[in-house]
C-alpha cells in the first residue's frame, strides 16, 4: 500500500507561528510598549472623576405584629422599585440644583447620578460622580434628601380633614463617605487594555509582514519553486567584510565558525558526487539570480574543498563584466580566459596554481571584451571546457542570471548549473524568474545553494544544526580538548596518494604528485 501524505495540504502549524514571532519579536515588543505608553498618556489627559454613594431605606406600615411587618416589608420593596424611576426625573434634579445652588442644568445633573435598587431589598442607592470629592458626596446626599421629600409628598394622606399621615416614607441612612481616590480614569485597567491591544497589533504586524515578505529564508521556500537544495552555507564572520577565500583545504580549525563553514562545503561536495552516480557532472557553472548573493566566494571555496581531496580542479572566472577571482585568490591580473578564446595566449601559460593546493588551477577572466555573451557562447569556449574536463573538475564562476544572459549561455555548454541563493535577501520572484530563464535554454539545473544562512537568532532554527550544534556553546569542551576527534585533527596530507571513486575522472594515485611544481593533469595532456 502506498504511503499517504497526511500533512500535504495542512496549513501552518504552531511552530511556524513561533518562528514568525521570533523573527519579528522586536517589532512586536515595540508596538506593545508604544500602546502601553499611549494608554498611560491618555490617562494623564483625562479628568479625575470621584464617586460617592448615599443610601435611603423605604419604610412602610408598622411592626405591631408579624403579619403587618411582612406586609409592610413587601410593600416597601415594591415601592422602592417605583421610587427608582422617580429618582431619575428632572423634578428631583431641579430640587437638588436649587438646594446646592448649582449652575449645571438638570440634564447634566441627571448624567452624573446613577440610582440602583439591590435585588430583593427596600434600599435605594444613589451614586453621584463629579470632578471633586466633596462635590460628589454633597450631590449624592442631596439627591437622597430630595427624593425623600418627593416621596413624602406623594405618599401623604389626609387624616381628620387637615392633618397628613405618611403611609410610606424614604429614610436617608446618613451622610455618604468622602471618596479618597478617583474612580476614573482607571490607570491599571487602561494599561492592561493598552497592552492587550498592543500585543494584538504586534502579532498582526508580524503575520502581515511575514505574509508580504517574499524573501527566501528556508530550504522549503526554494523547494516550493521546484528546485532541490544541494547545500546550505552558514554565515561566517570572515566573509562579512567582503569576498574571500577562507577555505584552505585543511580540516584543522581554531573556532566553531570554521567548522560550520568547512563542514557545509564538504557536505556540498559530497552531494555533487551523488547527483548522478553514473554520469557525474564535470563542468559546473555557478551563478545566482542577482548580484550580491555570494556566488564568487562560494565557487572559490568550493573549488578549494574539492581540490583538498586530491582531485584536479580548474576554476574559470567567466564573469567577464565584473571579474573577482583574481582578487579572491590574490593572483596576478593579466592574460586569462578572453586571451585563450581569442588565441592570443596559450592555456598552459595563463593557468595559475593556487599556492596551498597546486592541483587547483585558476583561469582568470583576462581583458574585458565588448561582447561577453558572444564570446562565452562560442565554439572555442565549448572546446576549452571539454578539454579541461578531461583531467579535472571545472567550476565556472558566471555572472548573475537576471541582469545578463551569460550564465544561461554557459549552462548549455556545461554538465549542469548551480544557483546560489542568499538567505533573507533573494526573493522568490527573482529566483523563480532565474529558474525560468534556465529552463528556456534546457539547462541542467543541478540545484540551489542556500548561502549566508543565519547561525544565531530567530532564523537559525530554520537551517538545521548550524545554529544548534556549532554555536550551542562558545567554550571548548574539556573532553574534546583532551581527546580531539580524528576527523577534525588529521587533515588529508597533500602528498598522500588518494584512491578515488573516479566520479569526477580522478586517476588513482593522482594525489601522490599533487605537491609537484606542475599538476599531473597538465603533464598528462602534454604526453598525449
What can you tell me about this protein's structure?
The protein is of the alpha/beta class and 528 residues long. It folds into three domains: 14-46 and 186-212, no CATH class; 50-172, EIF_2_alpha (Alpha-Beta Plaits, 2-Layer Sandwich), CATH 3.30.70.1130; 276-447 and 489-527, P-loop containing nucleotide triphosphate hydrolases (Rossmann fold), CATH 3.40.50.300. Helix content is 42%, strand content 15%. The strands form three sheets. An eight-stranded mixed sheet has the order 7-14-13-8-12-9-11-10, sandwiched between helices. A four-stranded antiparallel sheet has the order 2-3-1-6. Strands 4-5 form a two-stranded antiparallel ribbon. The chain starts with 13 loop residues before the first helix and ends with a helix. The model is unreliable at 1-9 and 464-528 (pLDDT under 50).
What can be said about this structure in brief?
With 528 residues, the chain is of the alpha/beta class. The protein has helices at residues 14-23, 25-45, 66-87, 90-100, 106-112, 133-155, 187-212, 219-223, 256-273, 295-307, 325-328, 337-341, 347-350, 372-376, 379-388, 406-411, 428-440, 478-482, 486-489, 520-527, and strands spanning 50-60, 113-116, 123-130, 156-159, 163-166, 168-172, 229-234, 283-288, 313-317, 352-353, 360-363, 393-397, 416-422, 445-453.
Amino acid at each position: 500500500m502506498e504511503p499517504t501524505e497526511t500533512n500535504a495540504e495542512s496549513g501552518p502549524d504552531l511552530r511556524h507561528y513561533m518562528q514568525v514571532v521570533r523573527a519579528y519579536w522586536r517589532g512586536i515588543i515595540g508596538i506593545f510598549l508604544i500602546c502601553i505608553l499611549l494608554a498611560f498618556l491618555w490617562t494623564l489627559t483625562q479628568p479625575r472623576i470621584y464617586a460617592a454613594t448615599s443610601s435611603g431605606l423605604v419604610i412602610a406600615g408598622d411592626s405591631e405584629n408579624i403579619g403587618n411587618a411582612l406586609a409592610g416589608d413587601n410593600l416597601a420593596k415594591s415601592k422602592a422599585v417605583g421610587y427608582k424611576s422617580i429618582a431619575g426625573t428632572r423634578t428631583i434634579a431641579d430640587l437638588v440644583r436649587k438646594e446646592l445652588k448649582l449652575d449645571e442644568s438638570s440634564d447634566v445633573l441627571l448624567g452624573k447620578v446613577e440610582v440602583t435598587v439591590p435585588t430583593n431589598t427596600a434600599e435605594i442607592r444613589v451614586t453621584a460622580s463629579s470632578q471633586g470629592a466633596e462635590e460628589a458626596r454633597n450631590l449624592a446626599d442631596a439627591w437622597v434628601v430630595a427624593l425623600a421629600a418627593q416621596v413624602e409628598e406623594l405618599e401623604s394622606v389626609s387624616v381628620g380633614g387637615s392633618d397628613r399621615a405618611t403611609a410610606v416614607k424614604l429614610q436617608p441612612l446618613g451622610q455618604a463617605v468622602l471618596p479618597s481616590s478617583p474612580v476614573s480614569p482607571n490607570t491599571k485597567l487602561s494599561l492592561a487594555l493598552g497592552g492587550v491591544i498592543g500585543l494584538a497589533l504586534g502579532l498582526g504586524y508580524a503575520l502581515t509582514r511575514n505574509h508580504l515578505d517574499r524573501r527566501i529564508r528556508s530550504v522549503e521556500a526554494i523547494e516550493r519553486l521546484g528546485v532541490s537544495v544541494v547545500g546550505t552555507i552558514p554565515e561566517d564572520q570572515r566573509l562579512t567584510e567582503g569576498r574571500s577565500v577562507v577555505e584552505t583545504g585543511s580540516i584543522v580549525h581554531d573556532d566553531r565558525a570554521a567548522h560550520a563553514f568547512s563542514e557545509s562545503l564538504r557536505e556540498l561536495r559530497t552531494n555533487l558526487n551523488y547527483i548522478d552516480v553514473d554520469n557525474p557532472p564535470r563542468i559546473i557553472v555557478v551563478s545566482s539570480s542577482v548580484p550580491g548573493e555570494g556566488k564568487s566566494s562560494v565557487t572559490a571555496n568550493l573549488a578549494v574543498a574539492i581540490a583538498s581531496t586530491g582531485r584536479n580542479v580548474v576554476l574559470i572566472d567567466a564573469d567577464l563584466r565584473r571579474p573577482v577571482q583574481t582578487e579572491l585568490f590574490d593572483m596576478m591580473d593579466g592574460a586569462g580566459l578572453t586571451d585563450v578564446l581569442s588565441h592570443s595566449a596559450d592555456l598552459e601559460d595563463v593557468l595559475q596554481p593556487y599556492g596551498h593546493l597546486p592541483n587547483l588551477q585558476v583561469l582568470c577572466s583576462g581583458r574585458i571584451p565588448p561582447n561577453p555573451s558572444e564570446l562565452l557562447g562560442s565554439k572555442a569556449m565549448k572546446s576549452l571546457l571539454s578539454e579541461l574536463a578531461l583531467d579535472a573538475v571545472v567550476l565556472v564562476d558566471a555572472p548573475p542570471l537576471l541582469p545578463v544572459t551569460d550564465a544561461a549561455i554557459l549552462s548549455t555548454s556545461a554538465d549542469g548549473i548551480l544557483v546560489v541563493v542568499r538567505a533573507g535577501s533573494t526573493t522568490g520572484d527573482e529566483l523563480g524568474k532565474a529558474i525560468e530563464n534556465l529552463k528556456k535554454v534546457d539547462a541542467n539545473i543541478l540545484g540551489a545553494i542556500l548561502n549566508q544562512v543565519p547561525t544565531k537568532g530567530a532564523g537559525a532554527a530554520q537551517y538545521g544544526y548550524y545554529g544548534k550544534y556549532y554555536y550551542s556553546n562558545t567554550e571548548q569542551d574539556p573532553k574534546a580538548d583532551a581527546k580531539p576527534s580524528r576527523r577534525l585533527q588529521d587533515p588529508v596530507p597533500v602528498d598522500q596518494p588518494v584512491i578515488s571513486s573516479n566520479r569526477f575522472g580522478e586517476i588513482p594515485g593522482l594525489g601522490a604528485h599533487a605537491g609537484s611544481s606542475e599538476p599531473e593533469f597538465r603533464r598528462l595532456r602534454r604526453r598525449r
